[in-house]
């Protein structure tokens, strides 16, 4: 789109911290953990320290004969140094392949094979406990950032080394491979370019500049391998925001951190925000300074928005909803105030960015798209990825004359607002919107931590519920909460840990339905 293209020279991971280090070298980056590759630096870093660390690790990679154009997979224990290693790989002109620590060894092996067995950066624990033995002998080279193992080479930084300059590739060449959530299948590898990353950055940066005028502390709990982290950090670095990055999302730990730093902007997965609702009751006021709550990965429950914004002491706190996908970035967005949080329709995800993105809803089953007859959602943006690595035909099947099919169904209102009803693969015939039913149940039952409506036996809609502290679901309250909703089977109660989830905390609905009705699942109604 025209405003994404003008002067788009790319957003390069290899020089990600360089500009900020020159402009604001002492800009703080605070972690809730130490870096595996440099534990001596502690958890209080600066942009300058991160830039130096990236340069040192890039030199270490060159010393191990990693060359421009090589693919280098990063799969290690969860830590912010995953992102720093991705930047180091890109700094020497190689292409980082970012693999979530939550992926199992079998899935990682299949992705490595798809990449023709690239260089692999990992650690002793992952190599010994999760990856099959064949990996060490088939990858171009296995580089260990911690520990030692036969057939693997230690990868260590040398602070005394002379940093090599950034090897700037063409902006339209592959610059980063990330994977999809894998909610329905083995994850696909999405190929990003520096130009597509910059195109994604622009609408988000514009929204942040219009809505956030002052200098705020940004608190981030986002998967370290997700492309969203690239744009979120790029905006914060450009604006000079102090940054707090956490890997522990448990409410108790987050409450301690937020009570001390009092962040002004929160960025996390929607399901993470649901767990953080309890922070609103903390007497230390960990949410008291929140100005903006941002969620990009999926729609967020109105109850959650109201709880978090309601705990803020700021005059006009707001929620910024961005609807997008790994393959194309954010495409529509909207802002919701505290006053309108509960009255807002949780299925309304917003409007396209003028001059940057476009959206349309096309007929499904020959019926005009509307509230009761959702159509296929398609979007356009220069933030669209190049392809799926090794699966170009699969990528092309989702394109229609430049329009990208999101895999969701929904409709647009007469004012142009996009409403998302369900994922295409999750539609339950004759039920209506499962996501809308879930929003309603969450708003009526404070005890719910999660509710997911999946097709049960013979396709009948079955709610799977998780309650706070695993307290038994009250049958009378459940009956009252379901009044006016389409008929469902009795709810099945699980613990949060029993839900199959992706790296971005989304529930894998098809896998949940499969597990739920397996003969040995032991699933029982909650009421």
Automatic annotation (TrEMBL):
InterPro entries reported in the protein's UniProt record: AMP-dep_synth/lig_dom (IPR000873), ANL_N_sf (IPR042099), ATP-dep_AMP-bd_enzyme (IPR050237)
CDD domains in the record: AFD_class_I (cd04433)
Organism, scientific name: Streptomyces tauricus
Domain AMP-dependent synthetase/ligase residue range list: 41-389
Name of the protein: Acyl--CoA ligase
Keywords carried by this UniProt record: Ligase
GO molecular-function term, one example from the UniProt record: ligase activity
């Amino acid at each position: 789109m025209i405003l994404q293209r003008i002067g788009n020279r790319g957003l390069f991971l290899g020089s990600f911290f360089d500009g900020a280090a020159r402009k604001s070298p002492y800009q703080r980056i605070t972690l809730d953990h130490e870096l595996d590759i440099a534990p001596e630096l502690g958890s209080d870093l600066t942009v300058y320290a991160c830039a130096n660390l990236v340069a040192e690790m890039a030199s270490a990679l060159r010393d191990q004969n990693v060359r421009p154009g090589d693919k280098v997979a990063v799969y290690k224990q969860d830590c912010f140094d995953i992102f720093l290693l991705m930047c180091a790989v890109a700094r020497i002109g190689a292409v980082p392949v970012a693999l979530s620590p939550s992926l199992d060894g079998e899935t990682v092996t299949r992705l490595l094979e798809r990449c023709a067995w690239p260089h692999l950066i990992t650690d002793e624990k992952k190599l010994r406990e999760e990856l099959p033995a064949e990996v060490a002998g088939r990858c171009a080279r296995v580089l260990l950032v911690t520990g030692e193992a036969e057939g693997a080479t230690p990868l260590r930084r040398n602070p005394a080394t002379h940093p090599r300059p950034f090897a700037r590739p063409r902006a339209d060449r592959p610059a980063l491979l990330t994977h999809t959530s894998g909610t329905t299948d083995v994850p696909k590898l999405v190929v990003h370019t520096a130009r597509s990353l910059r195109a994604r950055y622009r609408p988000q940066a514009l929204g942040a500049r219009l809505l956030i005028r002052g200098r705020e502390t940004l608190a981030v709990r986002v998967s370290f391998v997700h492309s969203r982290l690239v744009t979120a950090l790029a905006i914060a670095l450009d604006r000079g925001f102090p940054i707090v990055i956490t890997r522990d999302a448990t409410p108790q730990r987050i409450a301690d951190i937020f009570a001390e730093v009092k962040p002004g902007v929160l960025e996390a997965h929607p399901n993470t925000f649901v767990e953080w609702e309890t922070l609103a009751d903390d007497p230390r006021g960990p949410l008291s300074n929140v100005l903006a709550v941002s969620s990009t990965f999926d729609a967020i429950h109105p109850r959650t928005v109201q709880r978090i914004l309601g705990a803020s002491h700021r005059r006009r706190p707001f929620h910024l909803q961005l609807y997008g996908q790994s393959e194309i970035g954010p495409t529509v967005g909207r802002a919701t105030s505290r006053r309108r949080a509960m009255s807002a329709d949780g299925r309304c995800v917003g409007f396209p960015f003028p001059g940057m993105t476009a959206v349309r809803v096309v007929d499904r089953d020959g019926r005009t798209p509307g509230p009761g007859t959702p159509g296929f959602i398609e979007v356009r943006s220069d933030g669209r990825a190049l392809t799926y690595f090794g699966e170009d035909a699969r990528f092309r099947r989702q394109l229609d004359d430049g329009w990208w099919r999101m895999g969701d169904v929904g409709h647009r209102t007469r004012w142009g607002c996009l409403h998302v009803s369900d994922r295409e693969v999750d539609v339950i015939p004759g039920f209506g919107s499962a996501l809308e039913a879930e929003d309603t149940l969450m708003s009526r039952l404070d005890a719910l931590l999660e509710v997911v409506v999946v097709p049960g036996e013979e396709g009948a809609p079955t709610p799977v519920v998780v309650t706070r502290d695993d307290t038994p679901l009250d049958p009378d309250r459940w009956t009252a909460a379901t009044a006016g909703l389409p008929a469902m089977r009795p709810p099945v109660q699980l613990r949060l840990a029993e839900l199959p989830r992706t790296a971005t905390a989304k529930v894998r609905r098809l896998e949940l339905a499969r597990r739920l009705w397996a003969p040995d699942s032991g699933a029982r109604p909650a009421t």
